[in-house]
Prior knowledge:
By secondary structure, the chain is of the alpha+beta class. 18% of the residues lie in helices and 45% in strands. Strand 4 and strand 5 form a beta hairpin. It is globular and about 50 Å long.
Amino acid sequence: MKKVLFMMLAVASLGFVSCNKCDTKAAPAADKGGDKEVLYSGILPAADAQGTVYTLKLDFDDDHNYTDGDFTMVENTLAADTVAASGLKEVATSYTKGDFRKESKQVDGATVEYIRLIPDAKDALGAPSAASGYFVVNEDGSLTMVGADLTKSVNPELNYTLTVK
């Protein structure tokens, strides 16, 4: 009898938990006046691979006028594969989490807005870089990966841009 009562209590608890999760997911962040999430993705060049698929999620905090928050970045390294329909396969994956800040700086006489990623080494899985990452904010809302000097690649054939998904 105790086992049956315990099982019923456990099932009821799971129902309450899953119901609460459904309610929070159903309401968009903009309606709550809270944080907002933006997801970026793109295939960027890699020196030792066919490319790297970057997926970057920025979770903007509303308490600082949406200028900072938390980020999660997933990097999937691609290699050539003659069997796969796309001709590519994922050979390595790394995850990086941390904080980010939206900042601006004068570069060559112009104001450049950029996102600076500040990784948490303790939350990183795989082999991500512990150094800050930089993305210039483009007029169309996309992000372009740059170095600490905030200048874009001098090779126009290399695309370092992540687009909003």
